[in-house]
Amino acid sequence: MTTVVDAYLVAATSAASLLADPAVAERWLSPSALPEYRVSGLAGHLASQVFAVATALEVAGSTTTRPEVVPLEEHYRRARWLGAGVDDDIHVLIRSRGEGIAAPGAEALAEQTAETVDRLRDDLPKQPHDLALAVPGGSWAMYLEHFLTTRLMELTVHSDDLAYSVGIATPELPEEVLERVFALLTRLSVQRHGPTALLRALSRTERAPRSISAL
User: What is the pTM (predicted TM-score) of this model?
Assistant: First the structure.
């Protein structure tokens, strides 16, 4: 049975390979498919989904502070970026962080990401399931499974964004990864639009809503 750790490592490995694709370096300073993001900033944001896990593990191992642990749904209720406009402060900050992470350049970012994935491949399977990891930029924490699920979704979505931005095929991920991502996106879509909207979008073209976007 594929665990969330296995699924996360597959997606992280795929993202590291995507970042190393020559097309990313070639389009580094070009606009991306996301509003206000250059390819470089989007690449940095994608890589941050790897770095955030490594940092969270380091923090958990070096502090006695225990922030409040919340379930997955509550995490997204508290997330300031969800539903915010592209020019809102939180998204300006996220874009700035992405560019900062990407500052060393395409090749260096790809190498750093691959090295971090290698470390996580050794570290993550050793962690207890009840390990609580602090959420980046938040005052709360989530258990390992939920924390990795959020990063797994980000890796999958932003890998598609980056691949589309540089004109290459979106990386193919196995069913074991996509099932977890689709399950989370479905829950977030229902939370945002309600169950009827999702039901109609998936089954009734003639009365489907314009959008059931989860993010």
Answer: 0.93
